Structure formats: structure tokens, C-alpha cells
Amino acid sequence: MATNITWHKGAVSLTERQELLGQKGCTIWFTGLSASGKSTLAAALEQTLLHAGISGYRLDGDNIRFGLNKNLGFGPEARTENIRRIAEVSKLFSDATVIAITAFISPYKADRDAARALHEAAGIPFIEVYADAPLSVVEERDPKGLYKKAKAGEIKEFTGISAPYEAPTSPEIHIKTHEVSINEGVQTILNYLIEKKLIQGDKLVKH
Ligand SMILES: Nc1ncnc2c1ncn2[C@@H]1O[C@H](COP(=O)(O)OP(=O)(O)OP(=O)(O)O)[C@@H](O)[C@H]1O
Ligand SMILES: [Mg+2]
């Protein structure tokens, strides 16, 4: 634990930063089983935002475990620490007026709620997006062959098979990825951002 530290306040407030840059940040927090579509939707959303001239940046579970979180495993404590760090990083991005898009299984409700509380205390919108598909569907998709390995006992503590997943009870957005296309999923999120005045709809119109 760090001691003898003092918060140094910047010379620019959050509102002033948003006005100067003409953009508002927020965190779009995907949660869902492996292969539910978090990374797919996150990448498509990021692409759409950037092509509209809106700064979005993706933090993806696997990618972050190559770097920042390479020292963490998949036990309950490591999963909590994984999410705690990502919550802090996504808060920094969104505080900097970027649309932070996180794609982590984030199986524990308490961890997601902690991420939400961190953002709300900083006055930054936190948008939980439940990428939802039944276990039978994600097992069938199995793009990385992980369910096959988990069922064969080759991967321990695999969410949905040998580790729990606590589904969100009141996410801001619920996308049933077995019922809608990737484009429709992205559009649902864009509509939400427009409705909440986090992005301007006219920027998304292709010229
Ligand atoms: N409507 C849809 N939305 C998102 N993905 C879909 C949809 N329909 C089919 N898919 C497919 O489902 C798979 C989802 O895999 P993806 O890697 O995005 O999952 P994930 O939630 O990021 O999993 P993990 O937690 O293992 O990283 C992809 O192969 C994608 O093409
Ligand atoms: Mg993924």
C-alpha cells in the first residue's frame, strides 16, 4: 500500500476537457460467456466510431493478458484483480474523453458493480452491455476451441463449464447475439449512445 501520497488536481476540469475536445468519454463494458461475441462486437463498434471521427479504444481481455495483466491467472482472486485493473484503466481512458470499450468475461457481479461505482464516482457514464447467448450456442461456436478443451478437463476454472458466470440483472444494453446480427448489435449500442447524447448521430451518417 502506498503511503504519503497526495492527489494533485489538474488545471482542466472534466467538463472543460470535454468542451475543448468536443467529445464525451464513457465506458462500454461488455460482459458475457466466452464466445458470446464481446470481442467481435467491441471491434466492430470501435471501427464504426473511428470511421465517424469519434475516438474509441478497445481493451480486450486476451490482449490485456499479454501485457498489463500477464501476471494474473484465472482463479477467483486473479479474476477480481484483472477486472479491478481494467476498471481503473477504462476510467482513465473515458476521463480523457475516449469511448473505452472493454471486452472481458467479467463473470462476477460484484466486480462489475465495483467498476461501475468507480466510474460513477468520477462522473463518467458506465454502460454495461450483456453479450448473451445460451451455453449450447457458444459451445457450438467455440472459435478458439476452448469449450472443447474445458470439457476434456484440459482447462481448469473455465467460465460456464467449471467456473461460475453471474449474468447481469439490469444491464443498460442486452444483446442476444444468437438472435441479431453483428451489425444490429452495434447499431443498438450506437442508438443508446445517441439517445444519451454521448455521441452525435449526424457524425455517423456516411457522406
Ligand atoms: N450476432 C453476433 N454477434 C457477435 N458475434 C457473433 C454473432 N453471430 C456469430 N458470432 C460469432 O461468435 C463468435 C464470438 O467470438 P468472440 O471472440 O467475439 O467472443 P468473446 O465473447 O470475445 O469470447 P472470449 O471471452 O473467449 O474472448 C465469433 O466467431 C463471431 O463471429
Ligand atoms: Mg474476446
Structural summary, described in words:
- With 207 residues, the chain is of the alpha/beta class.
- It has one domain: 3-Layer(aba) Sandwich (Rossmann fold).
- It is built from eight helices and five strands.
- Strands 2-3-1-4-5 form a five-stranded parallel sheet, sandwiched between helices.
- Helix 4 (76-95) runs parallel beside helix 5 (109-121).
- It is globular.
- The structure holds adenosine-5'-triphosphate and magnesium ion.
- Magnesium ion binds next to helix 2 and helix 3.
Oligomer: single chain
Q: Strand portion, in percent?
A: 5-15%
The largest sheet, given as strand count, sense and whether it forms a barrel, is: 5 strands, parallel
Count the beta strands: 5
Dominant shape = globular
Count of domain modules: 1
CATH class category name: Alpha Beta
Q: Pick out the low-confidence regions.
A: none
* Fraction in helix: 40-55%
How far is the first residue's CA from the last residue's CA? 52 Å
Derived from helix and strand composition plus strand pairing, the structural class reads alpha/beta
Topology overview:
Layout: H1 14-21, E1 26-31, H2 38-51, E2 56-60, H3 61-66, H4 76-95, E3 99-103, H5 109-121, E4 126-132, H6 135-141, H7 146-151, E5 173-176, H8 182-195
Parallel strand pairs: 1-3, 1-4, 2-3, 4-5
The structure holds adenosine-5'-triphosphate (ATP) and magnesium ion.
Adenosine-5'-triphosphate binds next to helix 2, helix 3 and helix 8.
